[in-house]
Amino acid sequence: MSDKGYVHGDVLVTTQWVADNLNNTGKIRLVESNEDVLLYSTGHIQNAVHIDWVADLNDAIRRDYLDEEAFAALLSRNGISNDTTIVFYGDKNNWWATYAFWVFKLFGHADCRVMDGGRKKWIDEGRELTKEKPTFSQTDYKPAARTDYKIRAFRDQVLAHVQANQPLVDVRSPQEFSGELLHMPGSPQEGALRGGHIKGAKNVPWSRAVAEDGTFKTAVQLRDIYENEQGLSPDNSVVAYCRIGERSSHTWFVLTYLLGYPNVRNYDGSWTEWGNLVGVPIENPSKRR
Fold first, then answer.
1. pLDDT tens track for 262-276
2. Helix (H) or strand (E) holding 32
3. Topology of domain 150-287, per CATH?
4. Which residues have a catalytic role annotated?
């Protein structure tokens, strides 16, 4: 337990811990993953490698993630071994860092952690960034079979979840949840033919889990949001979703690691899939009939 009361608090490391371990590159690899894929080149933490969520993690043809062979190649060329401690961090309060973390967990990488506070906290503390891109010796990473069924939900499973009246958490903005918008405010409104939310879902925007300094809120504060306010329980089977599965990976991380929920899955098909399906249950308060 951490001093913030998390169930699996060891999955988070502080900025000071990272600063103290910058040169421990034989055992630790820092991974920066951002929404803005150009941000890394403007300055990053010393010895951090860049994982591009578009080019590195996604299949170029199918809407899916890379396969085991490509994952092994990605980690090997970044000098990552099976026993390497990987510490993720990034912009937008670690929104994309937790997305990369989730994808790495699909492949069962054992020791994954997140730098609490992300780029924001590191920069706010006046810590140094560098433009120097590190190079590491090639490794021979041995991938495990991708275990999607444990932490990933597919559309048929989500439909069964709805029909069984099991809890879903929609982590998008209130405007997206209501059907007023198809994407985040200020973004192009595209990608789905219908607006609204999956029937029965509760709206808890992902960013509510983060404090002003970019770190995660305490376990007490998180339980107040997800349990006292929304009625969730660690006994639940929970599905989280957003528009393409990246914001919901942040909530998946909070529920799974910080609050210790044993059965949480991320529906990465999310609204771009559900909002285009024929005949699935949708609630759209902006178009009440």
1. 999 999 999 999 999
2. strand 28-32
3. Oxidized Rhodanese; domain 1 (3.40.250)
4. 242
